[in-house]
Design brief:
The protein is built from nine helices and no strands. The protein is mainly alpha-helical and 277 residues long.
């Protein structure tokens, strides 16, 4: 029984090892095929046949997706043609697939170069830092990092300046808006005052549209002229009516005296016409 178990176990192990060897051989064949595509692509790039080289690199990636060289070289070809977005995508793939520090260093270094071309200096600084973490001895990466830092600081200053200018523009616009609002309020107030003055003026006019105060002045002037046409009594003097009344009274008195004199004459006796004081 134990012997049978041992024989079965040995058989299963041998089968597993055979399968592993077969799979390993298949992986090696895929990798070799993928590398051949990359080699052909490199030759085509040297001959400036970008379209054909791109197809070979894509075949290499399709044959063996873990082949870092396929993504890396394809990214370089895109970079040379100025297709920075696609180059960034392929080098990012290479950095993720990379298993060695050397591979990671190269991928991040090129990512930094692409980001500098895209004027993304702050992001380029981080890419160069990642490259130096995997290879601190690379002076070229260190030099590019210094350039990226200067560029990032300059962009930050420009952004701050633009922000200040934007705030100033907003402030000026707000001041202009406030000025326009104040002017509008002043115009409205002036119109209201004019309307009030017009209303007051209408209230002071008569039915014929003349100002009431002017009419009053004319009436007063007319009365004054009328009064000036008539003789006015002076202080200490009698008015014409008073003189008239007095003359009538004296005439009546004189008639009475005359009647009395006539009566006395008839009687034969003298009459005093004046009284002593």
């Amino acid at each position: 029984m134990n012997l049978l178990f041992i024989m079965v176990f040995l058989f299963s192990v041998s089968v597993t090892m055979a399968q592993d060897k077969k799979e390993l051989k298949a992986q090696q064949q895929k990798l070799e095929k993928s590398n051949n595509y990359i080699f052909q692509g490199n030759e085509l790039i040297q001959n400036d046949d970008f379209v054909s080289a791109e197809m070979e690199y894509r075949k290499a990636i399709s044959e063996q997706s873990s082949n870092v060289a396929g993504s890396y070289n394809l990214g370089n070809s895109y970079f040379e043609k100025g297709n920075y977005d696609e180059a960034l995508f392929r080098h990012t793939q290479a950095a993720e697939k990379a298993t060695s520090k050397s591979e990671k260093h190269k991928a991040y270094h090129n990512i930094g170069n692409i980001l500098m071309q895209k004027k993304l200096c702050k992001e380029a600084v981080e890419a160069y830092k990642n490259a130096l973490r995997n290879d601190p001895s690379d002076d070229e990466t260190r030099y590019n990092l210094a350039l990226a830092k200067d560029c990032a600081e300059q962009q930050q200053d420009e952004d701050q300046q633009q922000e200040k200018e934007g705030e100033k523009e907003n402030e000026d616009e707000n001041q202009d808006d406030q000025k326009n609002e104040d002017e509008k309020n002043q115009d409205d107030q002036q119109k209201n005052d004019e309307n009030e003055e017009k209303k007051d003026g209408d209230d002071k006019k008569d039915d014929q549209g003349k100002p009431k105060d002017e009419k009053e002045k004319e009436d007063n002037k007319g009365k004054e002229q009328e009064s000036q046409g008539k003789p006015q009594p002076r202080p200490g003097q009698l008015s014409p009516q008073q003189i008239k009344n007095l003359l009538e009274a004296m005439n009546n008195q004189e008639q009475k005296v005359q009647k009395k004199i006539n009566a006395e004459k008839q009687k034969g006796q003298p009459i005093k016409t004046e009284k002593d004081w």
